[in-house]
């Protein structure tokens, strides 16, 4: 079985593991701050994914949100970038609106992207240059809609700082409206379905965006940081993703915002 088909089966099995596990009690802890939650289920699901991948492909490397691969400093070979539960706050408070996200890269180049909406049991998947799908149905190519006629998604708590709010507020004001769903992976899934036209984040990790970036890239969506640069596979970054027209519109809002650019580069140690 090739990596892509193995990945599709694996992410569904991991989703089934989460569904079963969440019926029992689990412990909730905080990481960097009281709102940055992690549960036993996050850790156990990452370990489940790690074990399954290593048993099938012992020479592959895994980077996970909950600690696997934290010493990886290069992109050689096959790397799986895994978020066992993207949207842990939603998982804890709502019991839904969370996803498992996987991006697979070979020598730093995209190979496949997978997002599994656990409670809807929907699998978004794409193999590089072979189209993107929701379960077995092909997803439609991106439509060029202007910002003024579009819903966009962002994390409002991240953009309330003095250094970030001006450009972000102007973008939100210019859009039709703004949504926040609490899971970057699901927001990439919504972008792939055309339910939103763009998403903006001042800080994401590779496990938040690599699966979604590969899937939406197959549909003609453009994803960069606020400078218009390609996203890294290691380290944090800002993320802008949308149809080509909106992507350019949003970059224009950031173009001359030196305060934001300086904050961004310092924030991400660029």
From TrEMBL:
Domain of life from the UniProt record: Bacteria
GO molecular function: inositol monophosphate 1-phosphatase activity; metal ion binding
Gene3D superfamilies listed in its UniProt record: 3.40.190.80, Fructose-1,6-Bisphosphatase, subunit A, domain 1
Keywords carried by this UniProt record: Hydrolase, Magnesium, Metal-binding
Binding site for Mg(2+): 65, 83, 85-86, 208
CDD domains per UniProt: IMPase_like
Cofactor: Mg(2+)
A GO BP annotation: inositol metabolic process
InterPro entries per UniProt: Inositol_monoP_metal-BS, Inositol_monophosphatase-like
Record protein name field: Myo-inositol-1(Or 4)-monophosphatase
Species: Jeotgalicoccus aerolatus
Lineage: Bacteria, Bacillati, Bacillota, Bacilli, Bacillales
């Amino acid at each position: 079985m090739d990596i892509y088909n193995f990945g599709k089966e694996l992410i569904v099995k991991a989703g089934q593991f989460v569904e079963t596990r969440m019926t029992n009690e689990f412990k909730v802890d905080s990481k960097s701050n009281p709102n940055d939650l992690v549960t036993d289920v996050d850790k156990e699901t990452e370990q489940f994914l790690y074990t399954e991948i290593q048993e099938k492909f012992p020479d592959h490397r895994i980077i996970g949100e909950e600690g696997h691969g934290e010493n990886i400093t290069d992109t050689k070979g096959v790397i799986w970038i895994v978020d066992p539960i993207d949207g842990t706050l939603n998982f804890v408070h709502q019991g839904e609106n969370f996803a498992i996200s996987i991006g697979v890269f070979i020598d730093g180049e995209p190979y496949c992207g997978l997002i599994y909406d656990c409670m809807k049991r929907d699998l978004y998947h794409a193999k590089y240059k072979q189209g993107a799908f929701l379960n077995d149905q092909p997803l439609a190519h991106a439509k060029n809609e202007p910002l003024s006629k579009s819903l966009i998604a962002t994390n409002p708590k991240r953009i309330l700082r003095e250094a970030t709010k001006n450009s972000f507020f102007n973008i939100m004001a210019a859009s039709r409206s703004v949504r926040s769903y609490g899971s970057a992976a699901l927001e990439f899934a919504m972008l792939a379905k055309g339910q939103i036209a763009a998403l903006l984040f001042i800080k994401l990790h590779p496990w938040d965006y690599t699966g979604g970036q590969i899937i939406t890239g197959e549909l003609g969506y453009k994803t960069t940081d606020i400078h218009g640069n390609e996203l890294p596979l290691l380290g944090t970054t800002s993320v802008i993703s949308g149809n080509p027209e909106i992507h350019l519109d949003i970059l224009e809002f950031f173009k001359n915002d030196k305060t934001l650019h300086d904050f961004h580069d310092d924030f991400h140690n660029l």
